[in-house]
Amino acid sequence: MFAFRSNHADMTDSLIQTSSPASYDPAFDGDDPIARRSRAVCRGIGRLFARNGVWSLTEMPLRNGRRADLMGIDSKGKIVIVEVKTARGDLLGDGKWPDYLDFCDRFYWGLPPELDRACLDGPDFRPECCGVIVADEYDAEIVRPAPSHPLAAARRRVEVERLARTSLRRLLVSADPHCNTWGADLIG
Fold this sequence. Notes:
about 20% strand
């Protein structure tokens, strides 16, 4: 038997209120051009992934306190993380990306077509373990496949469950913003 928490007075009020995208969309950044470009790259990669049976979520919080720009799961249960960079300075100054490797089977850099990606071939970016995807708002192309570095089965299970729970929470909150007050452990 399940016990559900409820507060009907609060629910009634929240169902009448309108909500902006910022109230439940963690990727919403208003009119910031850098954030808009990042969302466009994520959209293109999302389309590429969907065509290939990889279902992804943006802004996925990880257990180490980091937040993956895109995290997805393929039809075999393998986890993919994409770190999106839209500016050269941001790409060259990113020292946190190795922290993502413990949470995925494949890691990609996601870049817009106009961004010079030559630096990704250097030793600091470990090309032997990172793929590269070039994307705009309409589509994407894998220009360097990411090699597989399989996670331990127990780690994969935990991460897949977190991804599923976070996805389901976001879906429910998009339908009923009042539910945003619960599940804080999935927000990051």
